[in-house]
Amino acid sequence: MTQTPSLAQLLKHAIEGRLLDVHTALIAKVESYDAAKQLVNVAPVLKRSIENMNGEWVTEQLPVLCDVPVLFPRAGGFFITFPIQPGDFVQIIFNETDIEAWLEDKEPTISHTKRFTLQGAVALPGIFPQAMALTDAHESNLVLGKEQGLQIHIDDQRIRLGSQDANEALAIASKVQEELDRIKSAFHGHTHAPPGGAIKPSDRIIVSTDIAAKSVVAQ
Description:
By secondary structure, the chain is of the alpha+beta class. The chain is built from three helices and 14 strands. It comes from Candidatus Dojkabacteria bacterium.
């Protein structure tokens, strides 16, 4: 004999069913990236559990999300972008309401039917499994660069170009030009001293001053 569910059970089932379609944040894998539009197609990597008609719990794969905007740091006319590749991971955040109209410069309105749905997704690049943790993360330096490649390290004293070990001072262009002008002037103004004579102090090439940059070093 089939047992008739109580009102409380029906309400609980209805609420749980509605919450299945309320999305807040998920991790997804990039399938493709449009650099011109900064949009990604992504596949959520975590499956959700749902209860079927027989009361059994089964897993369900969420659909691929297409044309999801990528949130690169950008403000005041400045920006930072990354060359997102298929296979990279992103954190998907779902807005309270559908943002498609706003993205297309149309009059935005708050939908009462599309709240926390898959249509309000935006992507934040950067999250990866622990097995893929950065090996170049520095405990005290700000680092910008390529994994296992060229990097810029900024510490409390210097900007190091190439790697954290960069220590070769760079020349400042204006000081280099100043020294070249001195050499040129001394060379053009030089005359040979007569036999037994001596070169006047004013005819000698002046010793160079320090032309090294104080804050930037390279390798």
